[in-house]
Amino acid sequence: MPTYRIAPSLLSADFARLGDEVRSVIDAGADWIHFDVMDNHYVPNLTFGPMVCQALRKHAVQPDGAKVPIDVHLMVQPVDALAQAFAKAGADLISFHPEASGHVDRTLQLIQGEGCQAGLVFNPATPLDVLDWVIDKVDLILIMSVNPGFGGQSFIDSALRKTEQARKRIEASGRDIRLEVDGGIKVDNIRRVADAGADTFVAGSAIFGQPDYRAVIDAMRAQLSA
Ligand code: DX5
Ligand code: ZN
Asked: What is the pTM of this model?
């Protein structure tokens, strides 16, 4: 069985208490912190920048002090300058939408050159074809199961078929690439997403919308180990 990871999205957290929310969700069993960056240009919403990531870096730790990866999802255009700023602000993984970068190969190299893992994000209508040319420079593939910009949306089922296709590409590449799905993931559909080949799951409203984060994350893990 693959090592599954749960990555709560801060988009649905209490923005007035982000440090506490990061610590709470890690105490509740989160593996990664999913950090949704929106610029009100590439997507019609605006969230937080590198300074907030830097402020949260010291909170994204396990009780024993081990770092919890900050998984930055850039919904921004252009990409490069912000990718560099987030790398300096303590991001561990930085993913971007290929449509938002003028030079996908160069942006991937820029992120890896900053010492971060690099990911590509595929919107519901975006095919995986770019992977034909850059899968050797990708550490993470992020499949959007909602249209980017907002939390609390419904899961788009075609993301399952795209996740299966991505899993096949990863296996053919022979590389250790994470396969993350993002948007509308709940306790009652996470198993189907895992069966399609995902190993990392973003959940925002399903977790932060509930009073007991541990209960939700435990329920998700129970589905994954069923
Ligand atoms: C949407 C973001 C997602 C979103 C997930 O643009 O990329 O990460 O926050 O939120 P839920 O789990 O509520 O769909
Ligand atoms: Zn996201």
From this structure: 0.98
